[in-house]
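Worked example

This section walks through a single chain of length 229. The input is the sequence exactly as stored; nothing has been trimmed or padded.
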Amino acid sequence: VERYADTMRIHMEPQAIYKQPIDQVSRDQIKASLRELAKRRSPATVESVHAVVSSVFEEGIDSGLLGSNPARGLLKKILPPKNQRDLKDPAPMTVEERDRMIATAERVCCRSMQLVLKAMALMGFRLGEVLAMRAKHIDLGRFLYHVVEAYKCQGFRKPKGGKSRFVDIPESLAVELEEHVMTLKKEGLQAGRGGHVDFLFVKPGGSEGSRWPFSQRDVQCELRRVCKA
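Given that input, the structure is written out below as tokens.
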């Protein structure tokens, strides 16, 4: 749902053609819009936008507002078959780039966000997994973290693949995580919440009843800021 909402917000709402009454949007307009998008974005993004656009028209047909879907079948006219597409190879950071990113994060980010980025860079966490980190799953004696869940949109689910796993914690990062947990305990006691620590990366500013981890978008925006810096 969040993906479709982002697709509408980023790629559809700014377009004048999607501000018209639904029965005035033509096939040629949609085709031109998707072709322009394909010049700037990946085939996967074009497919996502087309899926949202097409589903809106299908709903209009089901509701009796429209007689046809002008977006139906358009992808074949805009994108080549999947086996003929020029796909970009992954371009991960080099070790030097990773270390520069971490050093910059230490300079420009809050303590919790620094550790989010370090955990992803040094432990291989997926974004949702690092945001779901809890103090009870850290085993500092064996330098391990037990990944059992992932977090997104104030909801928790099993990790990708549906299985838990253990991840090694670099010794230097283990020291930082231990210090972070102690800091959270002190802050909880000072705020009258007690010394129990659950989530490691709680978004600041929430009330006592809404102490959620950072959102995925929070981290994505912060990583862009760090890389730009």
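What to look for: Residues 43-62 form the longest helix (20 residues).
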